[in-house]
Design goal:
Blueprint lengths: L6 H6 L11 E2 L15 H14 L3 E3 L7 H11 L6 E7 L2 H8 L5 E5 L4 H8 L3 H12 L1 H9 L3 H14 L13 H21 L3
Parallel strand pairs: 1-2, 2-3, 3-4
Helix pairs in contact: 2-3, 7-8, 8-9
């Protein structure tokens, strides 16, 4: 991989390389979008099993809300009992997330468009509205509101427990940055998220 983005030098300043790397594979979802590729449910099941044998840590097995056949295929893959953690893509809307919750996946991989063109012509939303929808999809605000109602000691413990579950953050590879640079940026994003969550304790 040739990583030419200026984000590399910015992200890696004063940052040491990671001790380990987890592999997130999206062959079964993004890979199927390549021209001429159409995977049957049986194809996807065989590929999922092969990826698990290879030792992939996390697998995006599809887009559950895209149709009943896709949702059923995802359930079949999740029922295989593979070692990899299973994800499904979902738009940042409740209906998509609900379908993933019923699919057997352990994780929801939410996304929302953020380019100026998407905001203006596709979503017809302001940037602030998109940020609010993304946060709502992650459940952060609902969790913070519930935690505010708890006694201080329980509040601190649950806030940290919730933060620890937010271990999978992603920066799109379209930024053209090296994996170690992505780790540095994600580390800073986690720190900022932690600060935001702790602000809700008071």
């Amino acid at each position: 991989m040739l990583a030419v983005s200026p984000y590399n030098q910015l992200a890696l300043k004063g940052f040491s390389p990671p001790e380990s790397v987890s592999m997130f594979d999206t062959t079964l979802r993004d890979g199927e979008q390549a021209p001429g590729i159409a995977l049957s449910p049986e194809d996807k099941i065989r590929i999922a099993q092969a990826l698990d044998v290879l030792g992939v840590d996390c697998m995006e097995v599809g887009f559950a809300a895209s149709g009943s056949t896709e949702a059923d295929t995802i359930r079949r893959i999740c029922d295989l009992g593979l070692d990899a953690k299973m994800y499904s893509l979902a738009r940042s809307v409740k209906s998509d997330i609900d379908v993933v919750a019923d699919s057997g996946c352990q994780c929801v991989h939410t996304f929302i468009a953020t380019s100026d063109l998407h905001l203006k012509y596709k979503l017809k939303m302001t940037r602030e509205q998109v940020k609010a929808r993304a946060v709502d999809a992650a459940g952060v605000e609902r969790v913070k509101e519930a935690i505010r109602m708890l006694p201080p000691r329980e509040k601190d413990a649950l806030m940290m427990r919730y933060f620890q579950q937010l271990s999978d953050l992603e920066i799109a590879d379209a930024l053209d940055i090296a994996p170690v640079s992505a780790r540095a940026l994600i580390s800073r994003a986690r720190k900022r998220l932690r600060n935001l969550l702790e602000e809700g304790r008071g």
